[in-house]
Design brief:
Number of strands: 20
Helix content: 25-40%
Number of helices: 21
Largest sheet: 6 strands, mixed
Structural class: alpha/beta
Radius of gyration: 30 Å
Strand content: 15-25%
Strand order of the largest sheet: 16-15-14-18-19-20
């Protein structure tokens, strides 16, 4: 961690460093301690609730009105020039702010385009972000923008842990004395960093070293060329720290893991081998469909409905092929909402986002300067005529009254929560149903991850339902749970619906601006009631439960897994009718069809309209 921070301090053009690690590993402490080693000694912590004008700067309203010309009010990135901009929990920061930070850190140029003001200025700072992966992941596009990444873990050596305790207690007992004891070492390190910063631009990068960098990044499967450029800069910084004027292969090896830790891509998974065609529940996903379902799992699930459930044999199915889903973004609505995401455009409820229009208001914190000045302009002659000889407002370029104030209306993007309710009973193991279903589920998760949606997975089988994956944006966690998800037993469909409804209700309570979409993947044939017992009345009970949930504020979708060939019960269609939902057949369970349905449902739920014209 210290080494990576030193590299960024020597060469801010590397693009910053991301510290990923468990809580309580002194990430924030070491970042703030680095400030004392920099020439400016500045460190600014960017709060998660910061606005765009606080970060990059904006119009100084008071100075503009007094002087009659636009005046720039500096932002945090101007104040931190030559120091460190630190973002704790960077994975929770709005995406557009992260983009601004990373662009300024990488280019050294801060551009301001706001409210008719256009300005740019140079800035050089070291960007450091820290995060706990347990609290959510950073989107891949933003993750790649950090130059270096360090995975931080707590000390496991008992001696080192004892030393941590001793130093902390020493500092608490006598902070000034503790700092004085370590001052010579800090001064020596500060001098070393100063010399390295001066030397870094003159460090050469021989052709064999450049070839090595390209080969290392290519073998790691890095997308694009950013990794190559960052590794070259980091290798030069490493050489400068060693007071050398030419980078070597050893320098590349020293920094490679920092550059590749968050960019390395695993080899593609080996496809599952074809299974025995004589066992329908183990058929490969590509096997021809349309044949009648006959197999031990189907008989177990839908035969002998009055027999006690008993222990059900469990199996797991591979995850089928994933696809690139179509764009699910929908038009804006006019309901003020808060939150972050990239799925649905809406009117901002917290003053963030893009300025689209203005309306009368008395909130000075969200003042739309252009609209306010236009409202005040027609009254200037009358107002000046009514001023007394000593009125200080005579010196103002524009006289603005509270009645002129116009409040900015901004649009932002919020995410959705997609709750997938998957039938994991024995019949889903037949004819590769679960393999295909898992592929579609993971495809939707990948799309939602990119757009900062939340995804949850609820499964039901045997005698009840289980929240297999709580609301998350972690692809890794969801894929692991999907891969290990057991299949077998009977179908407690009512329990699955109620579990999804409870999960959606908790999401609505904690995030009122979020949409919940529940996608039920099943053939609709229930044979276990809410009491966990096999019952001939389980199907009627399911329809009753579904009708009760139809108005719960969610958008419901049903995907019918029953084959189209042979006799069909169309139970899933009945379930969809009770939920007030649209029903897909198994043949439509492609990611593009599923995504298209989700998009249609969102449009129907939100009734979007275009934002009003800008005044």
């Amino acid at each position: 961690m210290r080494h990576a921070l030193e590299l960024v301090a020597v060469s801010p053009g590397i693009g910053g460093v991301l510290l990923r690690g468990e809580k309580g590993t002194a990430k924030s402490t070491i970042v703030r301690s680095l400030a004392a080693l920099l020439p400016s000694g500045r460190v600014r912590t960017l709060a998660l609730g910061a606005t765009e004008d606080r970060v990059v700067g904006g119009l100084d309203l008071e100075a503009t009105l007094a002087g009659g010309a636009p005046r720039l009010m500096p932002g945090l990135l101007t104040e931190v020039d030559g120091g460190i901009c630190y973002v704790d929990e960077v994975n929770l920061l709005d995406d557009h702010l992260v983009d601004l930070l990373l662009d300024a850190a990488a280019s050294g140029l801060l551009r301001v385009e706001r409210e008719g003001l256009s300005a740019s200025q140079e800035t050089a700072f070291s960007l450091v972000g820290s995060m706990n992966p347990e609290e959510g992941a950073l989107r891949p596009q933003l993750l790649d923008r950090f130059g270096l990444c360090v995975d931080v873990r707590g000390e496991t050596d008992p001696g080192a842990r004892v030393e941590v305790i001793r130093r902390r207690l020493d500092f608490d007992a006598d902070p000034d004395g503790f700092l004085a004891r370590w001052a010579p070492q800090e001064e020596a390190l500060a001098g070393r960093l100063r010399e390295a910063r001066a030397l870094a631009p003159r460090v050469g990068l021989p052709s064999p070293v450049r070839d090595m960098i390209v080969d290392v990044c290519r073998r790691a499967g890095c997308a694009g060329h950013r990794a190559d450029v960052v590794m070259a800069r980091a290798a030069r910084a490493e050489a400068a720290l060693a007071a050398r004027t030419e980078a070597t292969a050893e320098d590349v090896e020293a920094v490679a893991e920092f550059v590749l830790a968050h960019r390395r891509r695993a080899a593609p998974p080996t496809p599952p081998a074809p299974q025995n065609p004589d066992r329908p529940h183990q058929d490969a996903p590509g096997e021809q469909r349309g044949e009648p379902e006959t197999g031990p799992d189907q008989q177990q699930d839908h035969g002998a409905r009055d027999s006690p459930p008993g222990p059900a044999p469990e199996r797991t199915a591979e995850i089928g092929e994933t696809f690139t889903v179509r764009d699910l973004r929908i038009g804006p609505d006019q309901v003020p909402r808060t939150g972050s995401g990239r799925r649905q455009e809406t009117i901002s409820g917290d003053g963030r986002g893009h300025y689209v229009t203005a309306r009368p208001g008395r909130d000075a914190r969200r003042l739309a300067l252009d609209a306010t000045l236009r409202a005040a302009a027609p009254h200037q002659r009358d107002r000046r005529a009514g001023l007394g000889p000593g009125d200080p407002r005579r010196n103002l370029a524009v006289i603005v009254e509270p009645d002129d104030w116009r409040q900015a209306v901004r649009t932002t993007q919020v995410g959705s929560a997609v709750i997938l309710v998957v039938d994991a009973s024995g019949s889903m193991g037949a004819r590769g149903r679960m393999v295909a279903s898992k592929g579609a589920v993971l495809s939707l998760l990948l799309d939602s991850y990119v757009r900062r949606d939340q995804v949850a997975l609820v499964t039901f089988r045997d005698t009840g339902a289980e929240v297999l994956v709580p609301p998350t944006s972690s692809v890794e966690l969801a894929e692991q749970r999907l891969r290990r998800m057991p299949v077998g037993g009977r179908t407690p469909l009512s329990a699955g619906l109620l579990a999804a409804d409870g999960l959606a209700a908790s999401l609505r309570a904690t995030n009122p601006g979020q949409r919940q979409i529940v996608i039920v993947v099943t053939d609709g044939r229930a044979n276990v009631g809410l009491d966990g017992r096999v019952s001939r009345g389980a199907q009627d009970e399911t329809i009753t439960v579904a009708a009760r949930l139809a108005g719960n504020g969610c958008t419901w979708l049903v995907v019918d897994t029953e084959h189209t060939a042979g006799r069909r019960t169309r139970a899933a269609a009945g379930l969809a009718a009770a939920l007030g939902a649209r029903c897909l057949t198994l043949e439509e369970l492609r990611a593009d069809e599923l995504a298209g349905l989700a998009r249609t449902a969102r449009r129907a739920a939100t009734h979007p309209t275009s934002p009003p014209a800008r005044s």
